[in-house]
Amino acid sequence: MRERISPAKTISGSVHLPGDKSISHRYGMLASIAEGTSALRNYSTGADCRSTLECMRALGADIRIDGDVTVEGRGLNGLRAPASELDCGNSGSTMRMLAGLLAAQPFESRLGGDESLSRRPMGRIMAPLEQMGARVEARDGRYPPLTIRGGNVRAIDYTLPVASAQVKSCVLLAGLYAEGQTIVREPMRTRDHTEIALQEFGAEIERSRGAITLTGRPQLRGRDLVVPGDLSSAAFFLVAAQMVADADLTIEGVGLNPTRSRLLDFLAGIGVRLQVLDVQQTGGEIIGNLRVRRSPVRGGSIEGDLTAALIDELPVLAVLGAVSDEGLVVKDAGELRVKETDRIATVADNMARMGVKIETRADGFTVPGKQKFHAAQLDSFGDHRIAMAFSIAALAADGPCEIEGAGAASVSFPEFFDTLRRIAA
Ligand code: S3P
Q: Which pLDDT band, with edges at 50, 70 and 90, does 101 fall under?
């Protein structure tokens, strides 16, 4: 699918975003192993979160999808062996987190995915799961498909070698089935939706200075939960508002979990005019409305734990860097190389097509400021965040742009192009 994006002068109106991708995955999995019914409102409409639901169905959960998602949970020990390979599609979160659950099941299962997912590293979850007693086989020892021979897992005390919420979640989900306390230590704070969701579904979990302690074999109970709007999807529009001459946009019901909202601190810190309104709590998560207006943006630098916190937003922040006064420097971002695409390479490729300078390094990049975007043929390379980031860049181009493979946006945000057309003029 190819999309044509015309330059825009204004961004205005209000938008409501589909549910947060990270939270949707976790609710879908936990509801399936809880006892009783869960109603999940505003569940992500993206293909990734649908992959999670289909996998849980194949494992025996009874799931109805009609706007909201209703899950009849099977209880902690109620999953059954799937009839065939579980298809995780494009979703690294599905594969890595589900592997944790499967490591503890008394049956063998196989997890596969699309071409992009099949190139992503799985050694990071295999190591702790093997320590817990599961046997995991992978292509060339580290790539999907994975064959998991589960069984009795034992509790471990594990220090994450990479700052990854997916790996942390994988270990915690396996730890649900272990006797005693599973401890995960994280050198850098990563998104904590698993910890919050586990607590909501009734698990006993303690958190203190970089360590998470989960007590195994809890009784999880079905819940009615609302998934907050996805802040990582909101990021595209927060940047869009800085790419045009005039903007005043409200984004409603967005998740503002502090492990994710450092994006807002960063944007406000470099000059973006942002207001956070009507803050509330739901299911242990914080949610609120964002109002963003056009303002001069200074630019800045992202490194260390800030890089980890903004990892999904870096492609669109690179676009913002190019129109900022001083540009953007990103360091410590080697993880970008192993996302849905090598995002340092795919950002640089599209920047070059638009005549925008970027200097890349093994683990980061520098985008000088005050640059102009030129109309070009762009390519998502099958990566949802690249499709959306460069649609935003196209708003500031000197003519219409076309994006090859724009359909990739539906991995996290199928309504993206309709929404963009509604607010951009
Ligand atoms: C996610 C964690 C991040 C992020 C991904 C979703 C999650 O990946 O990039 O889009 O839901 O836990 P890592 O945990 O591998 O950094």
A: very high
Q: What is the pLDDT of residues 224-240, one digit of tens each?
A: 999 999 999 999 999 99
Q: Measured on CA atoms in the order 381, 385, 387, 393, is the torsion positive or negative? A: negative
Interatomic CA distance for residues 146 and 143, integer angstroms? 7
Mean per-residue pLDDT, 388-395: 98
CA of 256 to the centre of ligand 1 (A): 16
Nearest atom within ligand 1 for CA of residue 168 = 14
Mean pLDDT in the chain? 98
CB within 6 Å of ligand 1 — which residues?
22, 93, 164-166, 169, 191, 311-312, 335
Global pTM value: 0.98
Catalytic residues: 312
Q: In this predicted structure, what is the pLDDT of residue 89?
A: 98
Pocket test for ligand 1, best of 311, 316, 336, 385 (most atoms within 8 A of CB): 311
**Residue 35's pLDDT band (cuts 50, 70, 90):** very high
Chain length of the chain: 425
Residues 282-287, mean pLDDT to the nearest whole number: 98
Q: Which atom of ligand 1 is nearest to the CA of 162?
A: 16
Distance 370 CA to ligand 1 centre (A): 31
Q: Which atom of ligand 1 is nearest to the CA of 169?
A: 12
Task: Return the number of other C-beta atoms located less than 10 Å from residue 1's C-beta.
Answer: 13
The residues that bridge with 274 in the sheet, in sequence order, are 292
Assigned token pair, 312: 């999904």
CA 99 to each of CA 88, 203, 302: distance values in angstroms, whole numbers, following the listed order: 11, 19, 32
- Separation of 13 CA from ligand 1 center, angstroms? 30
- Total Cβ atoms within 10 A of residue 280: 12
- How would you class 6 by CB atoms within 10 Å of its CB: exposed for 0-12, middle for 13-18, buried for 19 or more? middle
**How many whole angstroms from its chain centre is CA 34?**
23
What is the model's pLDDT at position 67?
A: 85
Q: Which ligand 1 atom minimizes the distance to the CA of 164? A: 14
Close Cβ partners of 332 (under 8 Å, ≥ 6 residues apart) = 303, 304, 307, 308, 363, 364
Q: Is the pLDDT of residue 209 over 90?
A: no
If you average pLDDT over residues 88-106, what whole number do you get? 98
Q: Whose CA is nearest to atom 11 of ligand 1?
A: 22
CA of 295 to the centre of ligand 1 (A): 30
Assigned token pair, 214 = 């989960």
